[in-house]
Amino acid sequence: LDSPSKTMSIKERLALLKKSGEEDWKNRLIRKQEYGKATGGLHTQEVEQSLKKKRVTESRESQMTIEERKHLITVREEAWKTKGRGAANDSTQFTVAGRMVKKGLASPTSITPISSPLCSKSRGTTPVSKPLEDIEARPDMQLESDLKLDRLETFLRRLNNKVAGIQETVLTVTGKSVKEVMKLDDDETFAKFYRSVDHSIPRSPVELEEDFDVIFDPYAPKLTSSVAEHKRQVRPKRRVQASKNPLKLLAARDDLLQEYTEQRLNVAFMESKRMKVEKMSSNSNFSEVTLAGLASRENFSNINLRSVNLMEQNSNNSAMPYKKLMLLQIKGRRHVQTRLVEPRASSLNSGDCFLLLSPQYCFLWVGEFSNVIEKAKASELATLIQTKRELGCRATYIQTIEEGINTHTHAAKDFWKLLGGQTSYQSAGDPKEDELYETAIIETNCVYRLTDDKLVPDDDYWGKIPKCSLLQSKEVLVFDFGSEVYVWHGKEVTLAQRKIAFQLAKHLWNGTFDYENCDINPLDPGECNPLIPRKGQGRPDWAIFGRVTEHNETILFKEKFLDWTELKRPTEKNSGEVVQQKDDPRADVKPYDVTRMVATPQITAGTILDGVNVGRGYGLVEGDDRRQFEIATVSVDVWHILEFDYSRLPRQSIGQFHEGDAYVVKWKYMASTAVGSRQKGEHLVRVAGKEKCVYFFWQGRHSTVSEKGTSALMTVELDEERGAQVQVLQGKEPPCFLQCFQGGMVVHSGRREEEEENVQSEWRLYCVRGEVPMEGNLLEVACHCSSLRSRTSMVVLNINKALIYLWHGCKAQGHTKEVGRTAANKIKEECPLEAGLHSSSNVTIHECDEGSEPLGFWDALGRRDRKAYDCMLQDPGSFNFAPRLFILSSSSGDFSATEFVYPAQAPSAVSSMPFLQEDLYSAPQPALFLVDNHHEVYLWQGWWPTENKITGSARIRWASDRKSAMETVLQYCRGKNLKRPPPKSYLIHAGLEPLTFTNMFPSWEHREDIAEITEMDTEVSNQITLVEDVLAKLCKTIYPLADLLARPLPEGVDPLKLEIYLTDEDFEFALDMSRDEFNALPTWKQVNLKKSKGLF
């Protein structure tokens, strides 16, 4: 407490602090240096020398001029290239400038660090000039409207008019009545009922004149201290006013009403209506929306179906934000710009990437000197456009064309054809050009905002790159990117604002453009077309004027924004998943488990109508509750469907179909409840049920798409009973449909309205199908010997002589013959006009077996030739089996086999020919089918359609599927019967099927076009090939080097891994290194090495 510092003044203390801050730090630094000298020794001296040199250098630099300092910085920036061994390789070899120097297109001095384009850009350049006045609608201005907006306005007007006439289902007052409230009793009534009693007690007031101290005991202690001075004088409490009678107060109020108005609402009616709807929907399998739609009545006759012959569908939008043919230029380095340029070959250049889009093609053209960022952006855009089908592109895959590598392929020919022919184009520009282009093209951006029915330039984004914050739901914006003009509006913009914005933007589109003050013309950035000026009137035909809405923008529009997040690539997966992707995808493709194929499925034919299984359409049927019902047909009606109309068929024509037409069949039936038991001879008692109906729309295999659509619409219009509606395809008829005609269904060739063309001769030949007589049907086939089948029966009809030959094959089943007899008798009874008969015709039936035919039978077929079909007279084998059909595919990811089931298969009968040729040929090609004919098994291989481009990956998948299919077929043959030798398996190709295979089907049409494709695509012949022999070739692991260098490659070879098929000697000879050295290289180096050696 007695220290001198305590007695110092504030002024002295401030002076002491100032001295300590100016002088003491020197003393501390000297002490620190002395300590360093004492402990550091020689090291300290070296540090002092380096510090002295540094101070000398700093003093020299402080005396340099600005130019000398800039030169020094440049030298230091270049110094990293000379440090270390091979340090300059990256800059001289792998950059765009380095590659251009190698090609002799640039000087070595051009390999310098890329400076910012803002420094080299001229200071006098300004963005595109703004219009002197806002764009607004004037009386003398011719404004063009959008067709889609006009139709939308018309639709909304009609909708409002229609809604105005509909009574709303809201709560309404149905009645009013006035109700009185009981009045309260007044004093007079209350006094009359109750007797009053007076309890008055005389009271005298008490007066106290003395103090309270006198009243109490005089000997009691008293308060005599000083506190007694504050003693409060206690006074008697005043009298409190008594509470009033609440009933009297309530009766005295004059604002209370003694009556009220009661209102009755329609709540009960609405609730009962809701309960009815709920009850109806609970008994149905349909939702409330579906029931409401079925309850509505629509006139389908006024509907005009769209023509299916048109390749393109017209749109109501007269301002589509894309063109049929577009060429997109991808150029830049920091924020890569994607711009629409003129679709011609002269617009290309070697320094950028381009996308050529059309409805059928998606081409990616990669310039030789394009940078890595442009290549990545172009590949990303191409993938998004192709997968999401953006910009009207429906291409199934991307075709990449790399300049100088694959410019002479078929894809390149299509590319140049779309551009109007291959011509010369510009070479690559300076390596610094990309960043200069970015800055210059961004300054041509023009953004307008709709304000008070005017297009006003947006000062914040004029000549700048737009951001997503600019797009608001209540805004209307017009973007002018030179070759692209977009009208964008949010989802909360009114229809009137959309129309005026479209009209003003159209005026801007047709008006004058001026890019004279800009460094680049966005309509011709490469200055390759002298016909496109920097200032002119109207935009070119290939430019885009489009209208886009919120959340429906095109990818080309999104690319113009700086921060559009949807274009970001998905997050990269972890390293484990990446390693899995590098594995061979074929490793997971394995043969199917044949134990699931060998067992014959026990499927009971039946059709569910309105939630009830009607079985085969007749007889006893068991419901879900184990009760039995008996199905009986009440009536059958048929309508013939024309292009846009329908006509009812007469009674004698019911059951006569044509494979080129469509029909609607109304089946009315009754489901009667069966009561009783069949035990002890007791008969069932049938209780009459309710009549029901179902509408089948039958579609022939040669009917047009318009007729198929009309049949579906007409089914809805004819369905007055609101019954079930079932689609039926030719050859796939369910048994409940076939029984409607009691075995008299006939499918004729041709069309009903072209009877003159259908009748080509007096003889007709029909193939018998079906296993139950009342479900039988006839299929007309070509009338010659090749249409005969030994496993079924045939009907030969002479329309002039009214003569029928019922021919039974030698291997036909007994029930098949009975079906043929029923069908022939039906023709004799009905004498249908469609078969060329008349009602007065007296038909004669002659029944014969194969091998004992009369001469008149062969006269009908033209000649006697048993070699024209697969005659089984000399075959001693048993044919008491049904063929089976499986489709083999890996489209779902795993290789699987799916069996085809004949819908009318009878449980206790053998179906000799359950399948049709269309089952094979209508599948997506190329397809693989396993056909089990019991004695032999066939692997049917499809064809590559000519309209589809065959990619390398598709070839690899197809080869993998073929190998798995062959392994599955061999295992299936071994697993069919383990006690017997496996049957032989054969590989057959589409268009080149042998006779033993085609005779498994009721009819077969030879396809010459498909046979030509098959012969060109594969090395096949008409000879039957064993599956095991072909599989042995596919499993071959070693090939000579010459076979792998030749094209086409050997069958079954993976084109991406040709090196694995080489011996060690051929490997070292071809790649100049051993396998271990090759495997140690990165993947990209391996690919480049194989490309250079022709092994890729």
Key structural traits:
alpha+beta, Severin, Gelsolin-like_dom, 1096 residues, single chain
Characterization of this structure:
This is Supervillin. Its main location: membrane. Belongs to the villin/gelsolin family. It is extended and about 140 Å long. Among the domains are: about 325-435, Severin (3-Layer(aba) Sandwich); about 435-560, Severin (3-Layer(aba) Sandwich); about 610-675 and about 690-740, Severin; about 745-870, Severin; about 885-1035, Severin (3-Layer(aba) Sandwich), CATH 3.40.20.10; about 1040-1095, Villin Headpiece Domain, Chain A. The chain starts with a helix and ends with a helix. It is an alpha+beta fold and about 1100 residues long. The protein is built from 34 helices and 36 strands. The strands form eight sheets. The chain has a seven-stranded mixed β-sheet, with helices on both faces.
CATH-derived topology of the domain at 884-1035 = Severin
Judged by helices, strands and strand pairing, the structural class is: alpha+beta
**Which CATH top level class of the domain at 884-1035 fits?**
Alpha Beta
- Name of the CATH homologous superfamily of the domain at 884-1035: Severin
How helical, in percent, are the residues?
Answer: 25-40%
Contiguous runs where pLDDT drops below 50 for at least 5 residues = 111-124, 308-316, 567-587, 677-682
Instruction: Give the amount of beta strand, in percent.
Output: 15-25%
Give me the CATH architecture of the domain at 884-1035, please.
3-Layer(aba) Sandwich
Distance between the termini: 95 Å
Radius of gyration: 48 Å
